[in-house]
Write a structure and sequence with these properties.
Radius of gyration: 21 Å
Helix content: 55-70%
Number of strands: 0
CATH topology of the domain at 21-140: Four Helix Bundle (Hemerythrin (Met), subunit A)
Oligomer: single chain
């Protein structure tokens, strides 16, 4: 570039989102590090959170009539559910694994229906299901966490899951 005027130094920015590329790269590095250092239970929790955020974003994009944004958010949700389904270990708990696989499949089909029909009801349904599953996973201890004992006044007649049994269900091991 041969110009008579001196050029100002250029900042590294992402012109599409207006953000600073270096800040985006730092955030991406943080996310990758968090994923790579997470135990299997935390990975499942992270996937549920990401799926919930994706469906919430799809609902916002649907309301704003942003078809490409809605479709991208729904596609991300479908991909996350696919990842969760592929990580199931059907040998550890065959019945539970099968039920979760069927539920993940159902949610994927509802998301696709929401995209085709441009309807909020299927998105709201999937969001409720994901929130219920995410809430259940909050009670599952990770590898570095202890199982919280119920209060003395409360008795329960079931066994609390262990990190080993839950990670085995999703096929991850260390």
């Amino acid at each position: 570039m041969n110009s008579k005027f001196p050029q100002a130094p250029r900042r590294a920015t992402d012109m599409c989102s207006g953000g600073n590329v270096m800040a985006i790269r730092a955030h991406d590095t943080y996310v990758v590090d968090k994923i790579l250092s997470a135990d299997p239970v935390e990975l499942v929790r992270m996937l549920y959170r990401a799926a919930i955020e994706s469906v919430e974003r799809a609902r916002q994009r649907l309301e704003a009539r942003d078809i490409p944004g809605r479709s991208a958010s729904i596609t991300k949700g479908v991909e996350i559910l696919s990842e969760l389904a592929q990580s199931l270990n059907h040998e550890t708990a065959p019945e539970l694994g099968q039920r979760l696989a069927e539920l993940y499949d159902y949610m994927q089909r509802r998301l696709l229906a929401a995209n085709i029909e441009q309807a909020d009801a299927p998105l709201a349904e999937v969001l409720r299901l994901l929130q219920t599953l995410a809430e259940a996973w909050k009670g599952v201890p990770g590898l570095g966490e202890k199982i919280s004992q119920p209060a003395a006044s409360v008795t329960r007649n079931w066994n609390l899951p262990t990190a080993e049994s839950e990670t085995a269900l999703h096929g991850w091991s260390f």
